[in-house]
Specification:
Distance between the termini: 145 Å
Largest sheet: 7 strands, antiparallel
Oligomer: single chain
Number of strands: 17
Number of helices: 12
Structural class: alpha+beta
Helix content: 40-55%
């Protein structure tokens, strides 16, 4: 072969090498662009990690891939993204000092670890230990931002026959990792901003709901109306098929259910269960004063607490129970239950329901105080009216000396005060064992004084027992015993 031929072949080889390098550079540049784009558009870190995995996989063999993150504030190392053929589950989050493998080495030193090239030497020096399933080849690179090591990225080969990673692969991965670290920081910031924005919007929505409920409660002083208002409101707000409000009677240690809504007899409707002994989830909440949230394994939890169904014929898939507290005492429970799916109630739902329960507690206490004030006011008014009546009768009696006039005065006064259809006054002559009617008015008819046989009628029972008798009758009883009873 002539020198000219050798020169041509060398030039062709160099051109081919440069072409390959150019293509690799183009691939890397395209990868960096995709990484930056993923970081600027992500609102979900898991989607971001998956996108990074896919981008690295276009550059190099990355069937086995993980990202480790180091939290400087807590010193904890975790593995938020982990895809591996040999080790299905990632190591649990632990202090970085607990990690003695290549990941820990990279985080401590900020240096690349290529197992096939320098791993044996590091093992022999005791700087790393084999953790998990040994690989045929692996590269661990730090995710650095300036002098800070944010975490590590690793790719591994387990199967024989797959080409080992080259020095070029190592350099390329270390270079790309620098951009991933910057993108990771931006993605975290975007995710945190998005999270805070969602939380702010959610708090605003919750506040609007709370204000709406409190406005409704402020206009109610009726105990049952308050319960119905809260029950109907939380049915509209939350994703639940069963809603109930329970109240605890501490004297009898029973629980009643003034509001229950759920599937009953094939349709959604109000249910009216009888009061029951304190048990199940509601009993646990009342005893412990702690909310209960069950988003999974409802059947087992129900069996543990001896829970019973208020509506429907099967346990819900998810449920939340929050206490209604008045001071240190739990006066009841509000529950939401989803019959269709697990994990139906996030912490935000629990927090909002607790706030509504607190508002309801205040409203119920106000209603109780209002009822008590009204009762005392009515009693005071009644006592004042009774006193006025007594004074009026006494004034009349003081002016009368004729006994029959006194009977007539008292009888007429009693008829007017109590709006009675029938009124009578009689006296008992013990020596004669005789009852004398001095005043007897039935409707518009005045019956003259007369003698009544002793031992008959309710008047004889009252005389014998010296006790008052109160009889309330419905229409059937009225027809049976007559319009009046003597």
């Amino acid at each position: 072969m002539t020198d000219n031929h050798k020169t041509v072949e060398e030039l062709e080889a160099r051109l081919a090498q440069r072409e390959a390098e150019f293509q690799r550079t183009e691939k890397v540049q395209a990868a960096l662009y995709k990484i930056a784009e993923a970081a600027s558009s992500t609102t979900d870190m898991q989607k971001f990690y998956k996108a990074i995995h896919g981008i690295i996989g276009e550059l190099i063999y990355a069937k086995n891939f993980f990202i480790a993150e180091y939290d400087e504030a807590t010193g904890i190392l975790s593995f938020p993204y982990f895809v591996d053929e040999a080790d299905v589950a990632p190591p649990p989050p632990e202090p970085m000092q607990s990690f003695h493998g290549a990941t820990g080495y990279v985080l401590r030193t900020g240096q690349v670890s290529h197992y096939r090239r320098n791993g044996i030497e590091l093992l022999e020096r005791g700087e790393i230990e084999i953790v998990g399933t040994p690989s045929e080849d692996s590269i661990f690179v730090p995710l650095k931002l300036g002098d800070r090591v944010l975490g590590a990225l690793a790719i591994q080969i387990y199967q024989a026959g797959i080409p080992f990673y080259t020095q070029h692969d190592e350099d390329m991965l270390a270079f790309v990792a620098q951009h991933i670290a910057s993108a990771l920081t931006r993605a975290r910031a975007i995710e945190e901003t998005t999270r805070l924005l969602k939380e702010t919007e959610q708090r605003a929505a919750e506040l609007a709901i709370i204000n709406s409920v409190q406005e409704g409660l402020a206009s109610q002083l009726d105990f049952n109306a308050i319960i119905d208002l809260i029950g109907d409101k939380i049915r509209d707000i939350f994703d639940s098929q069963v809603t109930f409000i329970a109240l605890h009677d501490p004297q009898n240690d029973t629980i009643s259910f003034p509001y229950v809504f759920g599937p009953l007899e094939g349709r959604m409707q109000r249910a009216y269960p009888e009061p029951s002994t304190l048990s199940g989830f509601s009993g646990q909440v009342i005893r412990t004063r702690q909310a209960i949230v069950v988003n999974q394994d409802m059947d087992r939890r129900s069996e543990e607490l001896g829970s019973s169904l208020l509506a429907g014929d099967q346990n819900p898939k998810s449920a939340v129970y929050v206490p209604i507290q008045s001071g240190e005492r739990v006066i009841g429970v509000i529950s939401l239950q989803n019959m269709d799916r697990e994990n139906a109630f996030p912490q935000s739902d629990v927090r909002l329901l607790q706030t509504l329960a607190s508002s309801m507690s205040v409203a119920l206490e106000n209603a109780r105080l209002f009822d008590e004030t009204q009762r005392l006011l009515k009693e005071t008014e009644q006592r004042a009216a009774e006193l006025a009546i007594i004074n009026s009768v006494q004034e009349g009696l003081a002016s009368k000396l004729n006994i029959q006039s006194i009977y007539d005065l008292v009888g007429d006064k009693v008829r007017k005060i109590f709006q009675a259809d029938t009124t009578y006054i009689c006296s008992f002559e013990r020596d004669q064992q005789q009852v004398f009617s001095h005043y007897y008015v039935d409707g518009d008819q005045r019956i003259p004084p007369m003698s009544l046989p002793f031992g008959e009628g309710l008047y004889s029972h009252v005389i014998q027992t010296q006790r008052s008798v109160l009889i309330r009758t419905d229409k059937d009883d009225e027809a049976r015993v007559g319009r009046h009873v003597v």
